[in-house]
Amino acid sequence: MPVRVGIAVFPGTWSERDCQHAVTLAGGEAVFLWHKERTLRGCDLLILPGGFAHGDYLRAGAIAAFSPLMEEVKEFARRGGPVLGICNGFQILCEAGMLPGALLRNQGLQFRCQPTHLRVESGQGPFMSQLPVASVLSIPISHGEGRYFADAPTLDRLKEEGRVAFRYCSQEGELGSNHNPNGSVDAIAGILNAQGNVLGMMPHPERACEPLLGSADGLQLFSAVLPQLVSR
Amino acid sequence: MTRAPSPAVLRELALTEEEYQRSAQLLGRIPNPLELGMLGAMWSEHCSYKTSKRLLRELPTRGDRVVLGPGENAGVVDLGDSLLCCFKIESHNHPSAIEPVQGAATGVGGILRDVFAMGARPVALLDAIRFGDPRDRLQRHRLARVVEGIGFYGNCIGVPTVGGETYFSQEYAGNCLVNAMCVGVTTRARLVRAVAAGVGNPVLLVGADTGRDGIHGATFASVQLDDLAEERRPAVQVGNPFLEKCLMEACLELCGHEALVGLQDCGAAGLTSSCSEMAKRGGVGIEIDVAEVGRRESGMTPYEVMLSESQERMVLVVERGREAEIQRVFERWDLRSDVIGRVIAEPELRVLDRGQEVGVLPLSVLVDGFSERRPPAAMPESVLTARSEDPCALTPPWGLEEAWLRLLASPNCADTTWVHRQYDHQVGDDTVWGPGSDAAVLRFKGRPDGIAITVDGAHRCSLLYPARGAAMAVAEGLRNLAVAGAEPLALTNCLNFGDPDQPAVMWQLEEAVQGLAEAATELGIPVVSGNVSLYNDYQGESIPPTPVVGLVGQLAISGLPPGPAFRASEDRIVLLGEGAPSLTGSEYQRLTQSGVSGPAPDLDLARERAQAALVRELVHSGILHSAHDLSVGGLALALTKGCVLGGLGALVRLPSPESSSNRPGDPYQALFGEGSGRYLLTVSPDGMSTLEAACRRSKVPLTDLGLVGGEVISFSGLARISLNQARDVLEQSLPELMESR
């Protein structure tokens, strides 16, 4: 039985089919979960995909965070279920209080769609445990509000607890402002919750699953997490 | 003779006194104000094509792969195995000149609706945008805001912007061009027509509430921009991509539903146009009760409801008694859907307000009653003089090296990453080649094939040779597809011209359509959709003739096509084809001389076709290390790009003198000359003999130019620039310009 992966669909979501494709490539079975539903249909892993849920009105992810489905997602995460928020999904996780901090307008105020390099910073939790720390992944971004921000005490805690998942870096893994595409604090591209089972990231791993499209590094993320869930 | 309303009123409606008289005569009575408003919109150039229609009949529209040609919301071609491809290009020039963000955004929104109205899921967007000199602050502002608007809509709705063309020239300073193209895919079973049928069937309006925005948008598009343009800002609509995303998903969910009879986008001239066109296609009529139309604001008159161009609305005809099945889908997406009328047997558009008839127009009058215009056309004398000048005769103002660097720094040659990194070009997970490539390439998941798409504007020589310039755009599109390995299926076109009441503009239009028709016929690329945008004119100055063509081709996807980047030291650099480089209308001429002058650039359509077939074959054979077509910037730009993208220098010789037509051996002409029929290729030394044999077999000439390698791009010992310098100039010019104050 393949792992069942639930992909949330809000009005305005647009990367649900891309995530479905990535999940299928990694050997999983994707199921779409409509935002008004109150069931997760027995899924082993949840993805909150990219897009502009509810038009990102008010603030990116602010309205989606109050969806009926999100109550189920929170309960699933509380019980240790793995949840991956990509781009708009990351914004929703922050708005829902499942991850600390916020995503602000990019430095320079422009939308950015471009390749980026990510340094793996943590080995915690189901998403990160199979990725070698300090390895570099080529995964693109596509967002207008992806500048991660958190106050100093929160940042200190994230760093102490090994919860910074990815940082923007050069191809060689060096940090620096010219490798940070949106001005994120500390070049943070993705973070984990305290238990390590919830990952939020701005880059789109589902767009980097085939060499034909420029990179297959994103597939590592899906391929790493799915086998761990078979035994559940 | 009936007494016409005042000239001011008629002008507001974009009707002439004669047209007013004609309508009264056809109707046998005086039209009331509502009817006049509807007539003004439908008889406007924008909706009726009254000036261009007779010319467009010359375009070839049939082909083995054509499923639906012009006349529908978008053209449709067959990709095989039940997959169809649906596409169209459209202009949004005037709105973008006045309110760049929303003008461009709603241009994208409108073309998306045209495609999903056919039951096709949009998979790609492209844009052709033209502005004045970006050293001028206003022009930079327009570019930045147009890019923002295109990105705002496309990024939010989740359709990738995979390509386009950005061009700058002083002539577009008053009237910028914003053309948006959308490509979608569907199957035969899901294809929907924009047709009304079945007397008694209900007519539904779905999506956004109807407001006062955009009233007279169609008429506004049909008059010149003037200093009062600012006051017309309310005629520009405001886009809501989120709403359109929901509308698109709901409509796509319904395509293939047996209760859905017809689907039409509600664009220019609003309900008036969408209902009358649907009825016309179905040979029936439609009755609308404006009281049933959901309003955004109170106190709207029937006139305002019928002519509102509020965005994100679609009109549906559904089977009577099955409304609920359809409406349930819209409810799921939290969209309003209202039954606003019904199909009637009489071929007319009947407007009611709370059951009382307030206007009725036979479709024979409303849709077909306008009279075609034939404004006089005449070639200006200045054209003849300019044609006879020799662009090579002038002493170059710069040495070869300096000229080369200045060319690279021109915004028409420089790298446009600054523009396209603001567009999501990857969503959908199918983009093999994105913006900045010769053509965009998309694969289809689960199929061995994909499509290549390109948008190309007419060459600048069009000012003197409108037919040649238009044909050259089609040939360039063909070459762009060829280097991607794609065979052309069909094309869509957007004819951007000035004020057709100027004989010179009418001459340009007639010539250009003829050139387009000839190229499309000779190259075997039928025209399946299009749009005409006239009155691109500011303070009496018309834009240069600017037909823009969008080509769609099909290719087998086995791996990445070679692309323009040089790959390895010691590779041989060759020029395939024998088109003579010409400075007429070239970027070099734009930078060094005022105006366009010189003989017509060569174009041999039969040769183009044969060469494209050979290049496709070579691309798929795998022997090419790089392939790039020569266009703006000529050999100098193609060579520099190959070097910079590959991180390798090159040592090249002047192509043999015989290949230069009017001034043998002129290095300026060889380096900067443009024109058709040439490709820059690289192959490994081992691959050279295979390449030569293939070219011999196809009787296509091949010129050995030199070798890849080193840190310098060197040209016949006459000029050399370092790779780093070339890279800096190409990559930094546009960002530096755009970030300057």
What do you see in this structure?
The complex is a heterodimer of chains A (232) and B (741). Chain A has 232 residues and is α/β, with parallel strands linked by helices. Chain A has a single domain, classed as Rossmann fold, CATH 3.40.50.880. Helices cover 24% and strands 25% of the residues of chain A. Chain A contains six helices and eleven strands. The longest helix of chain A has 14 residues, at 217-230. The model of chain A has no long low-confidence stretch (mean pLDDT 95). With 741 residues, chain B is of the alpha+beta class. The N and C termini of chain B lie far apart (59 Å). Chain B contains 25 helices and 28 strands. A seven-stranded mixed sheet of chain B has the order 8-10-7-11-9-12-13. Residues 658-664 of chain B have low confidence and may be disordered. Classes of the chains: A alpha/beta (232), B alpha+beta (741). The interface between A and B is medium-sized, with 29 and 32 residues.
Quick rundown:
Chain A is of the alpha/beta class and 232 residues long. Chain A has helices at 16-25, 68-78, 88-95, 125-128, 152-160, 217-230; strands spanning 4-9, 29-34, 45-48, 83-86, 102-104, 112-120, 136-143, 147-149, 164-169, 188-192, 198-201.
Topology diagram in text:
The complex is a heterodimer of chains A (232) and B (741).
Chain A: E1 4-9, H1 16-25, E2 29-34, E3 45-48, H2 68-78, E4 83-86, H3 88-95, E5 102-104, E6 112-120, H4 125-128, E7 136-143, E8 147-149, H5 152-160, E9 164-169, E10 188-192, E11 198-201, H6 217-230
Parallel strand pairs in A: 1-2, 1-3, 3-4, 4-11
Antiparallel strand pairs in A: 5-8, 6-7, 6-9, 9-10, 10-11
Chain B: H1 7-13, H2 17-27, H3 33-42, H4 45-48, H5 53-56, E1 66-68, E2 75-80, E3 83-91, H6 93-98, H7 100-116, E4 121-131, H8 137-157, E5 161-168, E6 177-187, E7 202-207, H9 217-220, H10 241-254, E8 260-265, H11 270-282, E9 285-289, H12 302-307, E10 313-318, H13 323-332, E11 336-344, E12 348-353, E13 356-362, H14 363-366, H15 381-388, H16 400-409, H17 417-420, E14 431-433, E15 440-443, E16 449-457, H18 466-484, E17 487-496, H19 503-522, E18 527-533, E19 537-538, E20 541-542, E21 546-556, E22 572-576, H20 587-592, H21 605-621, E23 624-629, H22 634-646, E24 650-652, H23 667-672, E25 679-683, H24 688-698, E26 702-708, E27 712-715, E28 719-722, H25 723-739
Parallel strand pairs in B: 4-5, 9-12, 17-18, 24-27
Antiparallel strand pairs in B: 1-2, 2-3, 3-6, 4-6, 7-10, 7-11, 8-10, 9-11, 12-13, 14-15, 15-16, 16-21, 17-21, 19-20, 22-25, 22-26, 23-25, 24-26, 27-28
Helix pairs in contact in B: 7-8, 7-10, 8-10, 10-13, 18-19, 18-21, 21-24, 22-25
